[in-house]
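Q: Entry one of two.
A:
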Amino acid sequence: MLSGQGDIDNRLKALFDALSIPRPQMAENAPCSAGIGTHGAPLHTLLEDDELVTGVKVDTARLLGDWPDHMVRVLVRVDARPSEVIWANVPML
């Protein structure tokens, strides 16, 4: 949960962990194994490892309205580039 606990660094770390492939020690307690979601469906992730993140820009604002304290709204814009060029990711260049 990203609400009201910890500084922005810890909140970003939690977000990157959520977008990454689960580590083996995390996956053993999860309802799915790495790469396979529930009911055998593929598990799509954005990051192979959060150490591959090269830059972050954060803008914060207070949401107006009747929002519960435990909810946040996160908009993530990603500029994905291959870290290693192979024939399968040439169109991404």
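Q: Entry two of two.
A:
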Amino acid sequence: MDWLLNLPIAGMALTILAASYAVAGVIYLAVTRLAVGERARAFKAISPGMLPPLAIVFALLVGFMAAQVWSDSDRASTAVNREASALRAAVLLSDQFPGEPQARLEELIRQHIQTAVTDEWPAMARRGATLRIVPGALAEALKLSLSLEPHTAGQTLAQRELVASIQNALEARRQRIVLSGSSVNGVKWGALLVQAGLILLTIAMVHCDNPLTNRIILGVFATGSAAAILLIASHSRPFSGAIAVRPTLLLQVMPEGGGGR
């Protein structure tokens, strides 16, 4: 589904709507052709009372899947915000160690952000980022922070907070990489689509003797199910697609060249 999930929202919506209408059309034509003689009487004998339970199960599936994708998206945004805040704090704390240590820390943080934007974000969009790759610049920044020799009480406190900020940034990076691999698995998608198909089939059978009413109800449910599928699909991967977490905040906290702010 990579090609579908990476489409713009308008393209994704049109594709899902077209597929939903196509399935509804195929079901309508198949049931209409089969609804003759004994089969027609059998279709009409199906109780309309089957539709509410099927619709409730469909709604529950949509709710559970939507809760998952929204939670993953929120957690991904939180991880990026936390990483950006920790890096900004590290840049501010580096002021307590002017000269070479400050310049080196800012350069390492700048390198980390550049690597995250140019290398890690495309890999996360492909769900190819792993924790096996150590963030070299941030790891070196942590080592440098631990090796600093404070000469005042203020520098001692600043070093402790600096180390904590870099550790927080490392943990936030780990969380966003883990979340970049999250998605709705095929079993959940299959259950949702099968349930939608069963509802369409039941509608077509119940109203097989009234073609106009049948087409209207099938069209209404096909549109509603397409909207639900679009909602889930557009949020199913936190770092890919039209609605994705971007590295905007990291770029905002990137130290300027030459030790500027």
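A: Comment on entry two: The chain has a mean pLDDT of 92. The radius of gyration is 27 Å.
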